[in-house]
Amino acid sequence: METRPDLPEPRRGLSRRGLLKGFGATLGLAAFAKAIAPLTEWAPTVSLDEFLQKHYLELSPVDLEIILRRLERETREQYGTDVTIADHRAPAGVKFGYALNLSICNGCRRCAEACHLENNHDRPSHQSYIRVFEMQKGSLDLEKGNVHYDHPVPQPDKFYLPVQCQQCERPPCVEVCPVEATWKEPDGIVVVDYNWCIGCRYCQAACPYHARRFNWTKPQIPATEINPDQSYLSNRIRPQGTMEKCHFCLHRTRNGRLPACLEACPTGARVFGNLLDPDSEIRQVLAHKRVFVLKEELGLRPQFFYFFDV
Amino acid sequence: MACALLTIGAGLAWAVGRELAAARSGDAPASGPMVAGTNHPVIIGRPAGPPTVLAGFTDHQGDPVQVTCGACHTTTQPNLAIRSGEQLEQFHQGLHYAHGSLSCLSCHNAEDYDTLRLADGSPVEFGDVMQLCGQCHGPQLRDYERGLHGGMTGYWDLTRGPRSRHNCITCHDPHAPAYPLVHPVFPPRDRVAAGVHP
Amino acid sequence: MNTAPAIGQPTTTPAGHWRNYFRFLARVAWESFDGNWTFYVWMTVLTAVALVGANAWAVQVRDGLALTHMNDHVSWGLYIANFTFLVGLAAGGVMMVIPAYLYHDEEMHHVVIIGELLAIAAIVMCLMFVVADLGRPDRFWHLLPGLGRFNFPVSMLTWDVIVLNVYLLLNLHICGYLLYMRFLGRPANPRWYVPFVFVSIVWAISIHTVTAFLYCGLGGRPFWNTALLAPRFLASAFVSGPAFIIVAIHVIRRVVGGDFASGPVRTLVNIMRVTILINLLMVVSEVFTEFYTGGAHTSSARYLYFGLHGHNALVPWIWTSLAMTVAAAALLLRPGVTGHPVLLISACALAFAGIWIEKGMGLIVPGFVPSTLHEMVEYQPSLIEWKITAGIWAVGLMIYTLALKVAMNVFPPAGAQTPLGVPAASWPRSPVSVADGR
């Protein structure tokens, strides 16, 4: 290699400076390897198949079957119990709607508990998609609401407002997701592909109803408490670092059953059904009751309706 | 022709079978509206009949004796002066009574204590108690019939499965119908920073 | 045995260019590890901090973001706060480019590269903060158009990904091209960098506007849902950027000696005098609109400035930030402040810190408090968040230090007495002067 005249002559051999530099560089590399060693403990939890997995909407039926079996295997390995994970598609001619009778809800939170049990939520945080607010009668101001009440209910001067995902017609969470990990299905349910979500939490910032939940850590559920009837888009155990939300129990409702929260409600305050069926109970609510939605002025057209009896 | 008869026969047998199956579970449930062959039934729980009370003694096998209303009330005169449960002295003590300004005989039939009475005096079976409640609580009965009151379990889509519903007195004690205070499931344990109160 | 053309001769073959380019990279790498003892101490400290941050991030990936103090109510915290601030810093770096290229400020021309290199380091830090904040960084490829699913143009985050990466590439190209040409000893061809420079001016505005659009398009967060957010972002970026550059110039002066870039410093101070006042004006506008109107939409502002329902963790921060910005403005408006390095650096440090607090604690966190259902959950970063933040800042400072070191050797500051590390004469000098080389 030709050297240039105004460049200093490269030193022959190894100088002390060079030796120190080499030593420092090696030390630095070793320190870096040690520093990121925890990644080697994490890497085995993500299989190559999971890493390469395509988006739910791009999966062929065969791909999906393979993935479901793999997920069942992983649940067995990680949680110690056998589960069945199925794929439930949206039925034709159905648009789900949900209504809640605020004259009857007594704030017992059994709906939140049913959700917790049905959907394999993390146990230590007692996570649920439903939050019940104790509200001051005469005002819908959520600022005066209280989620952490712990006294016999219903209190005479309060009413109770359970809030969950509103399955908006124009969902801001769907608009902001950079990877399309969440989308609105034909039957109105806004779903999440837990294996596609990158965990940026933009949807959580965008949702005006505090409906989205993030798995800040790996969900902990004892094997005996796991609900084994699971679905890919709904209540299978979610991986760490992904978003989740109320999905109207689509593993039940797409088979024609009522959601878990409705069945658990002891006062019968919840009404669910097909908005496209004129004889359905939910249509009866819309026809005969004075319904309202939360934050209507945002223009998101929620499909979760509230009403009072008179 | 034979195929058609066979199909109809099979359909009928299936329908009857479902009725019998429904009758075997729970206390004498009756099937609700059922369009032949397409919809599953809406099963509404009904009280089996007049309630029974403990007579206070046991039979020769040691089981406590339960008697229906008529066992005593066919041999006694109704006391029209008693208007609420607190005034009862001889029997039915401890009956918690809080149903507005109704008296006992607003609902109970003085002529036949094994039935109830409607506002016009006509008797109604205990199993049809919803008709009695609905006289005054019309809006609730109307909502109930539309599926908006009383809850349900089972299927929203009756083409795919049945549904079970309550009757009024499943949830509301007819003598003190106001819904009781309950203690709620404990509040959410939010992830918050240590020392930062929610 | 020499078959390659001598460096400095025009290379006509692609093979020649490849060889030269690798030699250029090797030279840059060699320069990165060579310097005086201040340099070594500085870089070792930064390396140590970076390693602490790397370890903290690895632990966070393994155990989940539960190790942070973010939660379902306050779901963005220190990472996104720093990200937002650094996008502003990257945009502010271009404040030197406008006088140099649009107003033909000759002195500024020499030192524009300081701002462009700052943009590179800042964008790299932004990308690192985003990765640190992701719940599943292994799924990064889901963002790549073609491979993954890119929700463009609906999601503003996709716009941000595009503009930030293109801005990085723009500045890498401009700086890399100029340094490489200097290495070859050839005059830089304006066709290869001037159009990119003009694009970078517009692009710098766009990166911070798009970042603002991430927030201000969310109807569920009335604290952010204001048309003033993008202008506020730009105004604060054009305070923090010049502030940092002025301090960097003073550091370079300390190392190379002399009165390096006094004209550009004056220009930057003049710019800051205007932008810091515009920034304060916008704060006043926001405060008036919130507090005069009142109502539920203003509960975040009430929480921030005065506390709400007994929660007031952010109140000292915002008032300190305001005080710092006002003090910085007062110092900057003082005539002759450029002649007082201590006052000037204090003013810049105050402005920088004030804007950092305002963007972070003053913008991101209050957007989440109260939550969309009006629940009050406060947020203070956890130790792991601070470690990762410090580590990423250390990496950014390392990149900036090395970049500046290389650039100062290539374009030695006029009147330099002590070059940084390797003698400036060791780089090939082109027949044309430095000024013409740009």
**Mean pLDDT over the residues of chain A:** 92
Give the number of DSSP strands of chain A: 12
* Major sheet characteristics of chain A: 4 strands, mixed
CATH architectural type of the domain at 96-307 in chain A: 2-Layer Sandwich
Structural account:
The complex is a heterotrimer of chains A (about 300), B (about 200) and C (about 450). Chain A has a domain at about 95-305: 2-Layer Sandwich (Alpha-Beta Plaits). Helices cover about 25% and strands about 15% of the residues of chain A. Chain A contains 10 helices and 12 strands. Chain A has helices at about 15-35, 40, 50, 60-80, 110-120, 170-175, 200-205, 250-255, 260-265, 280-290; strands at about 85, 95-100, 130-135, 160-165, 180-185, 190, 210-215, 230, 245, 270-275, 290, 305. In chain A, the strands form 5 sheets. Chain A has a 4-stranded mixed beta sheet with strand order 10-2-12-11, with helices on one face. Chain A is elongated and about 95 Å long. Chain A starts with 15 loop residues before the first helix and ends with a strand. Chain B has about 200 residues and is α+β, with helices and mostly antiparallel strands. Chain B has a domain at about 40-170. Chain B is built from 6 helices and 8 strands, in the order H-E-E-E-E-H-H-E-E-H-H-E-E-H. In chain B, the strands form 3 sheets. In chain B, strands 1-2-8-7 form a 4-stranded mixed beta sheet, covered by helices on one side. A two-stranded antiparallel ribbon of chain B has the order 3-4. A two-stranded antiparallel sheet of chain B has the order 5-6. In chain C, helix 3 (about 80-90) packs across helix 12. Chain C is an all-alpha fold and about 450 residues long. Chain C has a single domain, classed as Formate dehydrogenase/DMSO reductase domain (Formate dehydrogenase/DMSO reductase fold, Up-down Bundle). Chain C is built from 14 helices and no strands. Chain C is globular. Chain C has helices at about 15-30, 35-65, 80-90, 95-100, 105-135, 155-185, 195-215, 230-255, 260-295, 300-305, 315-335, 340-365, 385-410, 435. The chains are: A alpha+beta (about 300), B alpha+beta (about 200), C mainly alpha (about 450). Chains in contact: A-B, A-C, B-C. Chains A and C meet through helix 1, helix 2, helix 6, helix 7 and strand 7 of A and helix 2 and helix 6 of C.
